[in-house]
Amino acid sequence: MFYNNATNPFVSEDSNTDLLEDTDSSYQLIVWNDDVNTFDWVIETLIQICGHTKEQAEQCTILIHYRGKCSVKKDSLNKLKPLCEAIIDRNINATIEDIS
Description:
With about 100 residues, the chain is of the alpha+beta class. The protein has a domain at about 35-100. It has three helices and three strands, in the order E-H-H-E-H-E. The chain has helices at about 40-50, 55-65, 75-90, and strands spanning about 25-30, 70-75, 95-100.
């Protein structure tokens, strides 16, 4: 429910505007399966680079192995680019996809 300044002096007139959806998270970082990297290396990478918990990293790694890829993080392109480059620097295949 919206209130105007007459009924609630703590709400500005601009509070009646619609909120836009979060457009900063319109990209996803995809990690791809390969026959080279170990589970432990991918798990360690996701923890260190993406800030995953051990459980998150393990689940993503299982998905990568069985499905061939996994979306490991969603964010803006500017935030995902350095993460993608850091993963690639560890010889793990990664890409960024637009999900908007």
